[in-house]
Amino acid sequence: ASLHLLIFLEVASASCKPFLSIMLQLARAGSMAASAAARTSLPEQLPVLASVRHFSMRRRRKSMPVNLGINFVPQQEAWVVERFGKFHSILEPGLRLLIPVIDDIKYVHSLKELVVEIPNSAAITQDNVTLHLDGVLYVKITDPYKASYGVEDPEFAVAQLAQTTMRSEMGKLALDTVFRERQILNEAIVEAINSAAIPWGVTCYRCEVRDIQLPDKVVEDMQRQVSAERKKRASVLESEGQREAAINVADGSKSSVILASEAFQTEATNEARGEAEAIKIKAKATAEAINAIAQAIEQPGGKDAVTLTVAQQYVTAFSELAKENNSMLIPANMGDPASMIAQAASIYGNVSKQVEANKAGSVVSK
Question: Which of 82, 88, 123, 144 is the Cys-Cys partner for 170 at CB 3.0 to 4.6 Å?
Answer without folding.
Answer: 123
